[in-house]
Amino acid sequence: MPTAVRILEKVSRAMQRVILQGSDDLCAHCQQEIKFNPKRRTRTRVICNVYVDGRWVRVELYHPQCYGRAGNPYGPVQRTP
Ligand SMILES: [Zn+2]
Predict the structure, then answer these.
(1) Does 4 fall in a domain?
(2) Ligand 1 center from residue 43 Cα (angstroms)
(3) pTM (2 decimals)?
């Protein structure tokens, strides 16, 4: 009996990353720019790789608070050290 090939299913996931200065990405929830803001200490954004049927389709970006308000559409945010 051959060992069954395990298919690693690609699923949508959300990661928290530092905002790059000069970036002008739009939040998928509030449609506002996600900017580095030292006054508000907004230093991170949520990046979601969205997969449909195991295929990567797009990236969505969120403010961390907006991702929570949107109901964590791609699961809990994975924080990277
Ligand atoms: Zn937002």
Answers:
(1) no
(2) 13
(3) 0.79
39: tokens are: 């006054």
Distance 72 CA to ligand 1 centre (A): 13
H helices present in 1-81, as ranges: 64-69
Task: Indicate whether 53 pLDDT > 70.
Answer: yes
- Cβ atoms 50, 10 nearer than 8 A: no
Give the length of the chain.
81
Q: Which amino acid, 27?
A: C
For residue 40, the one-letter residue type is: R
Six-digit token string for 64:
């961390």
Number of structural domains (the chain) is 1
Distance CA 64, CA 66 (A): 5
